[in-house]
Write a structure and sequence with these properties.
This protein has 5 helices and 2 strands, in the order αββαααα. By secondary structure, the chain is mostly helical. The protein is elongated.
């Protein structure tokens, strides 16, 4: 007979899933808090089209998409309306602002708490789009 099992005893366990439930509640509370802060930092407006938003119809947008290596840092989050958020999709900021220069101009104006590299990129993309449109006007 083995003596290994003689000194084992079981501790009382909490019900299964309780820790997971706590994490989910904390994550929801944290997301709500981050959304409020981001909404306030962006002046209660969509940073791409400039329309006024309510907290119920505002969405959080990752300027650098998660699928392209972005993170949930406050400098990467902005408030956007659903239409602009879907229009941007998983595009990089430069790609989006070159396609839609009006969004880049509004982004520079309303996105106050984003990382400065994103604002520099928006400025470059808008100036590039303006230069291209001026060249096309001169050629026509």
């Amino acid at each position: 007979m083995s003596h290994r099992n003689v000194h084992r005893f079981a501790l009382a366990r909490s019900p299964r899933g309780l820790a997971r439930h706590r994490r989910r509640v904390l994550a929801q509370h944290n997301k709500r808090h981050v959304k409020r802060e981001t909404f306030r930092d962006c002046g209660r407006r969509c940073v791409y089209c400039g329309t006024s938003l309510g907290l119920d119809n505002a969405t959080l947008d990752h300027v650098l998409p998660l699928s392209r290596g972005g993170d949930h840092a406050p400098g990467n989050l902005v408030s956007a309306c659903m239409a602009c958020n879907q229009l941007k999709g998983s595009l990089l900021p430069i790609e989006f602002f070159v396609r839609h220069p009006w969004a880049g101009a509004n982004f520079m104006r309303y996105a106050r708490a984003v990382h400065r590299n994103f604002k520099r990129g928006a400025r470059r993309a808008v100036s590039l789009a303006c230069a291209q449109s001026a060249q096309a006007a001169q050629a026509a």
